[in-house]
Amino acid sequence: MGVVKPGEFRPTPVYRPARKHGLQRLMLVAADGVVQDIMVRDFSSKGFSAATRGTAPHRDEVVTVLLPDNRALWGIVRWVKGNVFGVEFDVNTPPEPPMKSAPPARHDA
Question: Is the confidence at residue 1, as pLDDT, over 60?
């Protein structure tokens, strides 16, 4: 490998999946079963970032997101900053089939 002159080095870009921006209200089920409303800010095939009025889930917590068609996706919380957080989906598992009804609500205070 040759020597690179100063100012000529360009790192290889790391491409992220296309994100859809916009607001979407969804339901989040935390690991302890607490259900809360979240506002998804951007969404991609690998995850999303969202905000909540309550307490955000903890980093590394496994959560389930209920989609508008009642399918469920689960993932892991990768980062938290105040009431905003990011979830990475389990992309190797297809979404669970639609549920007949939403799970019993255990809303947080």
Answer: no
